[in-house]
Specification:
Layout lengths: L8 E19 L5 E20 L4 E5 L13 H10 L11 E6 L10 H16 L7 H11 L3 H6 L2 E5 L4 E4 L6 E7 L7 H15 L10 H9 L2 H7 L1 E2 L2 H7 L2 H11 L4 E4 L6 E5 L2 H14 L4 E7 L5 E6 L17
Parallel strand pairs: 1-8, 3-4
Antiparallel strand pairs: 1-2, 1-12, 2-4, 2-5, 5-6, 7-10, 7-11, 9-10
The chain binds 4-diphosphocytidyl-2-C-methyl-D-erythritol and adenosine-5'-triphosphate.
């Protein structure tokens, strides 16, 4: 860092997501599938901190740190560099170090990488004081980074359309209690799960209809009625995830037998999200799964929660220039 630069750091907290409904339409010319999804941000958080540095770099801590790339492919770093190109008169680029404290499962269908990208955008906008980058422009930049990134800026419960990047909030009151099952060694690649979905449909001679959100789910969400929401949960990618990881069928069955109101693979999987009727039921279910369920991490979460938010901005003034020694005053 050059002398005279402040050493500010900005920390952002960002949640992961589950898809309460994921309807997958046909593959488009650009390779993406048209989707209609209902996202919900849940209280499993990563913390992303940015600070000025000599060169662009990233480090990762937390239980899933060893599964996250620390090179140029890290989505948080990609996001920071992308926003860096929007800095007016920045002349030389001003690199940052990105520190990720990771709790969101990696390659688990909870959009951990996308969440880190959204957090890096919010953190760097604050660090660099980019007042000209309003929320609309941030949404636009986010959508270029990945289909889920825009939603993680907003959080809450929202409909995602297009390839998932067009986000409209869903109004509702109350909260849902989730128990998440995270399997080790079962990571799934999102493109492979979409491709498997296409393969299964082709084999069955099915052509998907144009996807649209179901009114049953939207009605249930208005009151956050857990039983009604549970009845309306649906994920078109679930069959593909189970086809690639057959052990997931047993996980869904185990949670259902232990009293979950609803169960589904989250997004492209393999995380399985169980919906409980109350906090007490969620505790009972998580204890039951930990004791008698298939081996995996068990995480309790509530939703909806807000999207990426600045939680700390430490401002350190630049070091004062060296003072000349004061000699005796003469004359
Ligand atoms: C499964 C979900 O998480 C559900 O919200 C998303 O659809 C995936 O979103 P994401 O991880 O942000 O995905 P992207 O980084 O945009 O795309 C990764 C790859 O997933 C596939 N993909 C993704 C989104 C979409 N609507 N259609 C697709 O076919 C494409 O092969 C794409 O190249
Ligand atoms: N900051 C990051 N955090 C996690 N994974 C990252 C990150 N940057 C790049 N990746 C890569 O992205 C891949 C997908 O990870 P991610 O946790 O986003 O998956 P996912 O939750 O299944 O995504 P989605 O739900 O959006 O489809 C990982 O295998 C990893 O190599």
């Amino acid at each position: 860092m050059s002398p005279g630069t402040s050493t500010d750091s900005v920390a952002v907290r960002v949640p992961g997501k589950v898809n309460l409904e994921l309807l997958v339409g046909a593959q488009r010319e650009d390779g993406y599938h048209e989707v209609s999804t209902v996202y919900q941000a849940v209280s499993v958080y990563d913390r992303v901190t940015v600070r000025p540095a000599e060169r662009w770099s990233v480090s990762v801590t937390g239980p899933y740190a060893d599964r996250v790339p620390t090179g140029d492919s890290n989505l948080a770093l990609v996001a920071a560099k992308t926003l860096g190109r929007r800095r007016p008169r920045h002349g030389r680029s001003s690199p940052v170090h990105v520190e990720i404290d990771k709790t969101i499962p990696v390659a688990g269908g909870m959009a951990g990488g996308s969440a880190n990208a959204a957090a890096a955008l919010v953190a760097c906008r604050e660090l660099w004081q980019l007042d000209h980058v309003d929320n609309e422009l941030l949404d636009q930049i986010a959508s270029g980074l990945g289909s889920d990134v825009t939603f993680l800026l907003h959080g809450g419960t929202a409909i995602g359309s297009g390839r998932g990047e067009q986000v409209t909030p869903v109004l509702g009151r109350g909260e849902l209690h989730w128990v998440l099952w995270v399997g080790e060694g079962l990571e799934l690649s999102t493109p492979e799960v979409y491709a498997e979905c296409d393969r299964l449909r082709e084999a069955a001679g099915e052509t998907p209809p144009a996807p649209e959100p179901s009114s049953e789910l939207l009605t249930a969400l208005r009151r956050m009625d857990a039983a009604d929401v549970a009845a309306a949960l649906h994920n078109d990618l679930q069959a593909a995830a189970v086809s690639l990881r057959p052990e997931l069928a047993g996980v869904i069955e185990a949670g259902t037998e232990l009293g979950a109101l609803g169960a589904m693979v989250s997004g492209s999987g393999p995380t399985v999200a169980f919906l409980a009727g109350s906090q007490t039921e969620a505790i009972d279910l998580s204890v039951g799964l930990a004791a008698n369920g298939p081996v995996g991490d068990i995480v309790r979460a509530i939703g909806p929660v807000p999207g990426a938010q600045v939680v700390q901005h430490l401002r350190t003034p630049p070091p004062a220039p060296p003072t000349r020694p004061v000699g005796p005053v003469t004359g």
